[in-house]
Design goal:
- The structure holds three protein chains of three kinds.
- By secondary structure, chain A is α+β, with helices and mostly antiparallel strands.
- Chain A has two domains: 28-116, Immunoglobulin-like (Sandwich), CATH 2.60.40.1220; 120-305, no CATH class.
- Helices cover 56% and strands 12% of the residues of chain A.
- Chain A has ten helices and seven strands.
- By secondary structure, chain B is mostly helical.
- Chain B has one domain.
- Helix content of chain B is 70%, strand content 2%.
- In chain B, helix 3 (38-61) crosses helix 5, helix 3 runs parallel beside helix 7 and helix 4 (71-93) packs across helix 5 (95-101).
- By secondary structure, chain C is of the alpha+beta class.
- The longest helix of chain C has 48 residues, at 2-49.
- Chain C is globular and about 85 Å long.
- The chains are: A alpha+beta, B mainly alpha, C alpha+beta.
- Chains A and B meet through helix 4, helix 6, helix 8 and helix 10 of A and helix 2, helix 4 and helix 9 of B.
């Protein structure tokens, strides 16, 4: 009986203290995003006062990198349910840049400052898709060709090489990121990029080799052969170099490496499917082997050109 | 006699019978990607030549001191060092050319041809022979790049080395990187054809 | 065991040798690289103003560098300009409304101010602790006999593939004097044609008013306009043709409409933002009667 009353008493106190905050929570935006070309949509948890929400002086909007240039709001509309406030601008917004919306109260003091940007997840996925399709390392960037032509004769070889490559790629790319961020940049040793990255790749290959040998000899027998070839693959060092020149974050590097490996696997698989059929076709003797493979690769490259400019997010 | 495997023979071998691009089919990434003009091909060819020659000679000089179990890492380290040097040098003294070649100069470190040459030749032969062999291989690569670059530049932009020869652009397609595949494939077939014709003339196969 | 030790020893020795070779290469080439970058920059700037190796810049002309920074502290943000005064440099801070916060002298000499690291450090010192300073952009004010004749603006914006970096020259009324493409990764033969004269020179002479509504049209470029832009026609005739087409929108590149559009929006953005900022800066300078080298 006593505990019950104490509990009710304290709940009442807490609610009493939090009540003003709860009421004010309605003042804070719960969701923000870009709408049409020239629109930012703010969503509130509860209906807002239309007259207050539609005062242009309440909002200050600017691109994060140019805080001194205030964007001109042409019109403000509030949706019927009172929760969505649309800020419409006289000129279209550069949605690639992060925008800041600063909301002020009637007293001129800032209530909150919101960042509006395209979804980060979307950006990460676009890095992945870019490395996979749009900037496919074999067909668009023309890297890793020696290994590519060597292992694309059979589907099984292709799959083996692709998988091993992806694994080594992701591991060495992440390790390279650590080295780059914590050793190369702080000590201004950028010119050692090449040596460090290729060193890390060799290390990864060696490590994967040893581990695979001990842990799963069967797997090693089928895939081990491809490990040595990974070092001769231009892509394996191209990815850390790209990461360094664009200064990607950890997760972005992961996406890039995954996309690169995946793209290579895709390219290998496509090529091997075609080459298996070519073996049975009637090819003139001068073209047999590599020449016809190159020409097929050229056609694939043209096809992949169709992906350029692809922007899903 | 080691000296009879003369310098000329070594060079000829590098350019013709064991041409890295057309015969050995190694280091093809730049052949496809960068050979859009003769100048680009020339620049990269020179860079590869430099790395090949210096690495061959360096490894050959130290061949007795390299422990067999750390062969590959040593080769990789040597190649990476020389690639870094040429990369820095090009960036400093020829910035325009360097900008066009982009990432490919740094990628020389992954070229299989150089490592293979060190493994097969430089670690066994004398520095002198290694020098000529490296020169041959490097020149073979250079010649290959220049030839591909010539064909693509001529057919793609009607000019060679910037001099307008044809006065019009036959097929823009040839400058686009995807054409690199076609051109290299066709040239390989062409080399094959020459070899077959030569063999037929000589020995009736 | 002895084997492993030998291996480690040999590997370490090789690494040290390699490091020495690379380190010395780096030191030797670094100076040349910086020098080359500097020379290249000068060349681009003079080209924008219409001067080259053939026609050298007159002695009465001077280039003054102006750097803009964003200063952030607990209360908010302000804009800082590192300006060359009559003697020495000043750091002028303006609030978001354009009012002057303060104007302090900066201890940095002419050579050091060209180096990004030294510059940033000096500015950070002036700003003091508790405030962070980020470099925003750089503008070059060109004066001839002390009068302002042009501004050189840097800019980088999204292109069809990654980024396009440009340098623009505008006159005191913000009419475009020239456009140079500094870097891009567009497709050769397609987007890369933005480097060509027949595209870039279309922007030359566009006034600020024209720039505001400037658009890109997907029509073929008239041949005489092409020849005039490329400089293949005599100056007098070329001037007539350029005047005839000068009012039109930008003709898009064949097969590269998107790249053309990006360059157009990029250029518009750079000039508009600069005009806005310069107005605020000049008002602030006049109000406080601050003397600058330009």
């Amino acid at each position: 009986m006593m505990t019950h009353r104490l509990f009710t008493y304290w709940t009442a106190v807490v609610l009493f203290i939090l009540a003003p905050a709860c009421l004010h929570a309605a003042d804070f935006v719960s969701e923000q995003r870009f709408g049409a070309d020239n629109e930012i949509i703010l969503t509130y948890p509860a209906a807002v006062d239309k007259t207050i929400a539609q005062k242009p002086a309440r909002y200050t909007v600017f691109e994060e990198t140019d805080p001194d240039i205030r964007l001109e709001i042409q019109k403000i509309t509030v949706a019927d349910d009172g929760r969505k406030v649309s800020l419409i601008f006289s000129e279209s917004l550069n949605t690639a840049k992060t925008h800041v919306v600063s909301v002020r109260g009637d007293d001129g003091r800032e209530i909150e400052s919101i960042q509006v940007k395209k979804s980060y997840l979307g950006y990460l996925l676009s890095v992945l898709i870019s490395a996979l399709l749009v900037n496919n390392f074999v067909f668009t960037k023309y890297l890793g060709l020696c290994v590519f032509f060597g292992t694309s004769k059979r589907k099984t070889t292709a799959k083996g090489m692709g998988v091993v490559f992806t694994i080594v790629m992701v591991i060495s790319a992440l390790m390279s990121w650590f080295f780059y961020q914590f050793i190369l940049i702080p000590y201004n040793l950028n010119f050692l990029q090449i040596v460090v990255f290729i060193g890390l790749v060799s290390l990864t290959v060696q490590a994967v080799d040893t581990i695979l040998r001990k842990v799963n000899p069967i797997l090693f027998n089928s895939f081990g052969v491809y490990l040595v070839l990974v070092i001769a693959n231009c892509v394996i060092i191209a990815v850390p170099l790209i990461m360094a020149s664009n200064n990607y974050s950890f997760i972005e590097t992961f996406m890039l490496a995954l996309g690169a490996g995946g793209g290579f696997l895709l390219a290998l698989y496509l090529m091997s499917s075609v080459r298996e059929r070519l073996d049975l076709a009637n090819i003139p003797p001068t073209f047999k082997g590599l020449p016809i493979a190159f020409i097929v690769a050229g056609q694939f490259a043209m096809a992949f050109l169709g992906f350029s400019g692809l922007q899903l997010f | 006699m080691a000296n009879d495997k003369s310098s000329m023979q070594l060079i000829a071998r590098g350019i013709l019978s064991e041409n890295p691009i057309f015969k050995l089919a190694l280091s093809m990434c730049p052949a496809v990607g960068i050979s859009t003009t003769v100048i680009n091909g020339l620049m990269l060819g020179v860079a590869v030549l430099f790395v090949q020659v210096f690495s061959s000679v360096t490894i050959s000089l130290f061949k007795n001191k390299i422990h067999p179990r750390i062969r590959i890492p040593t080769y990789t380290l040597t190649i990476a060092t020389w690639v870094t040097v040429i990369d820095l040098a090009l960036a400093a003294y020829l910035p325009d050319a360097y900008a066009k070649m982009g990432i490919f100069v740094k990628l020389i470190v992954a070229f299989a041809i150089i490592t293979m040459r060190l493994e097969m030749f430089a670690c066994k032969e004398s520095p002198n022979d290694s020098f000529w062999d490296g020169l041959g291989m490097g020149l073979g690569f250079l010649v290959g790049m220049v030839v591909i670059g010539f064909v693509r530049e001529l057919l793609g932009s009607g000019a060679v080395l910037g001099y307008d020869l044809l006065g019009f652009k036959p097929l823009l397609f040839f400058i686009l990187p995807s054409a690199g595949f076609f051109v290299v494939g066709l040239m390989m077939a062409f080399f094959n054809w020459i070899e077959l014709a030569y063999k037929r003339a000589k020995g009736k196969i | 065991m002895k084997d492993i030790l030998t291996i480690i020893l040999r590997l370490t020795v090789t690494c040290i040798l390699a490091a020495m070779v690379m380190g010395s290469a780096f030191i030797i080439t670094n100076k040349a690289k910086k020098h080359n970058e500097h020379v290249n920059e000068q060349k681009v700037r003079y080209a924008l103003l219409g001067y080259s190796a053939a026609k050298s810049i007159p002695d009465s002309m001077a280039l003054h560098e102006m750097y803009r920074y964003i200063v952030t502290d607990k209360e908010g943000q302000s804009i800082g300009y590192l300006l060359p005064g009559k003697e020495g440099f000043y750091f002028l801070t303006l609030d978001m409304g354009g009012k002057v916060i303060d104007n302090q002298p900066v201890k940095i000499d002419e050579a050091a101010v060209l180096e990004k690291d030294l510059r940033d450090k000096a500015v950070q010192e002036i700003a003091g602790t508790g405030r962070s300073v980020t470099f925003a952009d750089q503008t070059i004010v060109v004066t001839n006999n002390g009068e302002r004749v042009a501004y050189l603006l840097d800019g980088k914006f999204t292109g069809f593939k990654t980024f396009i970096g440009v340098m623009l020259a505008v006159d005191p009324k913000f009419t475009i004097l020239g456009l140079e493409i500094l870097e891009h990764e567009e497709d050769p033969g397609l987007g890369a044609e933005i480097e060509r004269n027949y595209f870039r020179n279309q922007f030359k002479g566009k006034t600020f008013e024209q720039l505001k509504d400037l658009d890109v049209v997907k029509e073929p470029l008239p041949d005489e306009y092409f020849q005039a832009l490329e400089g293949n026609i005599e100056a007098a005739d070329a001037a007539k043709i350029l005047a005839k087409y000068g009012d039109r929108d930008i003709y898009a590149l064949t097969g590269a409409t998107i790249s053309s559009r990006y360059v157009n929006t990029g250029v518009k953005g750079i000039v508009k933002k600069f005009a806005y900022r310069l107005n605020i800066l000049d008002t602030a300078l006049a109000e406080r009667k601050i003397e600058v080298a330009f």
